[in-house]
Design goal:
The complex is a heterodimer of chains A (about 400) and B (about 250).
Chain A: H1 3-16, H2 18-55, E1 60-65, E2 82-83, H3 84-93, E3 97-112, E4 115-124, H4 128-131, E5 136-139, H5 144-148, E6 153-156, H6 158-164, E7 175-178, E8 181-189, E9 203-207, H7 208-216, E10 221-222, E11 225-228, E12 230-235, H8 241-255, E13 266-270, H9 271-314, H10 316-324, H11 329-364, H12 374-400, H13 404-409
Parallel strand pairs in A: 4-9, 6-8
Antiparallel strand pairs in A: 1-12, 1-13, 2-11, 3-4, 3-7, 3-12, 5-8, 6-9, 7-8, 10-11
Chain B: E1 10-23, E2 26-39, E3 43-47, H1 54-61, E4 69-74, E5 77-78, H2 84-94, E6 95-98, H3 110-115, H4 125-138, H5 154-166, E7 172-176, H6 184-201, E8 204-208, H7 212-215, E9 220-225, E10 228-234, H8 246-250
Parallel strand pairs in B: 3-8, 3-9, 6-7, 7-8
Antiparallel strand pairs in B: 1-2, 1-4, 4-5, 9-10
Helix pairs in contact in B: 4-5, 5-6
Bound molecules: adenosine-5'-diphosphate and magnesium ion.
Chain lengths: ~400, ~250
């Protein structure tokens, strides 16, 4: 029997029951669409994170307080801190660095007139912008004078500027209130472009010393010393990242009076490492989402099997007749397989179109730049076809093995 | 086995044919040591009360089922030794089956219904179409080829089914109560068609009926009861379809 004729027969059978066929392939359509769309969104997220980290400069090292190992059971827990003195010591001693930027960060309500937002307010030194790849769009940066005089001045991010000053094109020179203290805006940062989960343009920078004395106060003081959240160090080149990292370890261990057996009470993360960790995480996440979506393909396959079984029992007489006029087992097997394959392939194609459509909508809504990949399309499509084949075999086998006489007698 | 068709030989040779159905504890002897021979070109009727084994016999003769024991030689081929694939091949090449309920595919034109048996052979599309058209012409439905079963009368549907049975030039045309679902006038018309196929193209016809008037249109009548053949008689004066009336014939 000709394949084309078989496909025609199958299509006619399926068209005769349009609603049922549509419901049958729904599972496959949703499954394939979900795989394609989720993989596209996942891939989009991965590449946006990657490009964002790359924009921060991959020579950067971030130092934060904290132990990577748990303390021995029973040993008293002593929290780890990063002190301002650590920064001073690093700044004095480190070689091969392009800049070092200590920062203390807190979250405060920032208001301007009737506009208010909860924003991170970071106390910084004059090196902060350079080390973290920020540029000034308008106004001036924080300088050493602002720090020594503890001026109430602030640099604001692009998003913060539009949030607080929706109608003012240039807020430089205007006042904002942080925790009910007036600060003068001295500059607005250029947008870094928000591409992912956190907005890098929603921030307020103030002189570190102003922050210590006016905002952070007791929170930023431990053991009689000023503490920092993070010290960002930018190595002079990619080649010196490792050596700078070991210098930092050496200096900080000395600063913190750690004994040889003690574990580090600080963590140094470098951007290259972060990059690979994060893209590892997102691709795991993508795969995971894809796998969940693939489950619905499995459910769709069971739907196909169910409907095909119904169709086999409804058409028992037809099968008997086909056998009576000379159809062999393999003819009947093939007929029903073509039917389930037609269903799953149709479902697959519709699902791919739907998934790509969803990805397109997500992109148009500027949520994330979703990237439909050839591999996800191929993967879900072949999975759909395989499902059609797998779940079609049993009903087709049942049909093929009906005894012709029994089948003809059935009513 | 090429010499089958040279010498005059029995088309069907059935020896001690037995069919037992097992229904749990019970055995139903649907056929019990049935013996008979059918020559090429014969037209015979099998009669008997309901449950006497007529359909079972037809399904074995038509290679839709295999006997429990006994032998069946069709055109020189020992059918009882065949596997599923070989049986399908025999059905395709040698058997044309007509049913009481027509068994046409719904939503499918007369032509496509007749094409169905050819779709399981290696005929090319054009040759198949020509063959199907010929068969439809033979049964007098040349002008109904595009019609679907629900657009045809019962008699016309049975003609489509007969065309479908003839399309592979079968050695035997087997009909299980072909007039059973038709009124008596239409039934006679179908008998007329069988008679002309028998006379004009020498078609071997075996049909089942429980209607003795219908049976008397054939040359030979075999009576079954409880799975046995009780009589096997030549009908010397077969009725001609459309000429005799039921009431006359009853006398
Ligand atoms: N598939 C089957 N399973 C069990 N019993 C059957 C089956 N087919 C037929 N029979 C039994 O065999 C006997 C003959 O049936 P059948 O050949 O259909 O008779 P007829 O066609 O003469 O009415 C009946 O008793 C019937 O119940
Ligand atoms: Mg019967």
């Amino acid at each position: 029997m000709l394949i084309s004729q078989n496909i025609l027969t199958a299509l006619r059978g399926l068209m005769a029951n349009k609603l049922r066929s549509a419901l049958t392939i729904l599972g496959i359509v949703i499954g394939v669409a979900a795989v394609v769309a989720l993989m596209a969104i996942g891939n989009g997220a991965t590449s946006s994170i990657t490009s964002r980290i790359a924009s921060n400069g991959s020579n950067m090292l971030n130092i934060q307080a904290g132990r990577s190992q748990r303390p021995v059971a029973g040993a008293p827990y002593t929290p780890a801190y990063l002190y301002y003195a650590d920064y001073e010591s690093l700044a004095r001693t480190l070689t091969d660095i392009a800049g070092i930027a200590p920062a203390y960060q807190g979250r405060f309500t920032v208001t301007q007139g009737i506009n208010s937002s909860s924003t991170s307010v970071t106390g910084v030194t004059e090196d902060y912008l350079k080390v973290n790849n920020y540029e000034i769009a308008n106004g001036r940066a924080i300088n050493a004078n602002d720090r020594t005089k503890q001026n109430d001045v602030a640099l604001i991010g692009a998003t913060t500027a539009t949030d607080l000053f929706p109608n003012t094109p240039d807020p430089v020179g205007m006042e904002i209130r942080i925790n009910n203290i007036n600060f003068t805006v001295i500059g607005v940062l250029k947008s870094k472009g928000s591409t992912g989960f956190t907005n890098q343009d929603d921030l307020v920078l103030i002189p570190l010393e102003t922050g210590y004395s006016r905002l952070y106060c007791a929170n930023a003081s431990q053991n009689g010393q000023k503490v920092l959240n993070v010290i960002a160090v930018s190595a002079s080149s990619a080649d010196t990242v490792d050596s700078v990292s070991s210098q930092i370890t050496f200096i900080l261990r000395h600063q913190h009076h750690l004994k040889l057996a003690d574990a580090d009470d600080f963590r140094i993360s470098n951007q290259a490492q972060l990059l690979s960790t994060l893209s590892g995480v997102t691709s795991t996440l993508t795969t995971f989402l894809g796998a969940i979506a693939a489950l619905s393909l499995l459910v769709g396959g069971i739907g196909i099997m169910n409907i095909t079984l119904v169709s086999v029992s409804e058409r028992t007489r037809e099968i008997g007749l086909r056998k009576a006029v000379g159809a062999r087992k393999d003819h009947i097997l093939f007929q029903f397989l073509v039917e389930t394959m037609t269903l799953s392939i149709t479902g697959g194609v519709i699902g791919i179109l739907l998934g790509a459509g969803i990805a397109e909508v997500v992109t148009l809504l500027k949520l994330i730049t979703a990237q439909v990949t050839f591999s996800s399309v191929m993967l879900s499509f072949s999975f759909a076809v395989a499902i059609g084949l797998f779940f079609g075999i049993y009903p087709a086998y049942r049909a093929a093995n009906l005894e012709p006489m029994e089948a003809l007698r059935s009513e | 086995m090429d010499n089958q068709s040279d010498a005059p030989h029995a088309l069907i040779q059935v020896v001690d044919l037995t069919k037992i159905f097992y229904m749990g504890e019970n055995e139903v002897h649907a056929l019990d040591r049935v013996n008979f021979i059918v020559q090429k070109g014969e037209m015979l009727a099998i009669m008997g009360p309901s449950g006497s084994g007529k359909s079972t016999l037809m399904s074995i003769i038509g290679c839709l089922d295999v006997p429990t024991s006994g032998s069946y030689i069709l055109d020189g081929l020992p059918v009882e030794k065949m596997n599923d694939t070989q049986l399908a091949d025999v059905r395709s090449k040698k058997i044309g089956f007509v049913f009481q309920q027509f068994n046409l595919l719904a939503r499918t034109s007369a032509l496509e219904n007749v094409l169905l048996p050819l779709s399981y052979t290696n005929k090319n599309r054009r040759a198949a179409r020509d063959k199907a058209m010929q068969a439809l012409e033979l049964v007098g439905l040349k002008d109904r080829v595009k019609h679907h079963p629900n657009e045809l009368s019962g008699g016309q549907q049975q003609r489509v089914a007969i065309a479908r049975a003839l399309v592979n030039d079968p050695a035997i045309l087997i009909a299980d109560e072909p007039t059973g679902a038709l009124d008596s006038k239409t039934g006679e018309e179908i008998m007329g068609l069988f008679q002309s196929l028998h006379k004009d193209i020498g078609q071997t016809v075996i049909m089942v009926t429980h209607d003795s008037f219908i049976a008397r249109h054939t040359d030979r009548i075999l009576r079954l009861a409880d799975g046995h053949i009780i009589t096997d008689a030549v009908n010397l004066n077969p009725l001609k379809a459309g000429e005799a009336r039921r009431s006359d014939a009853e006398m």
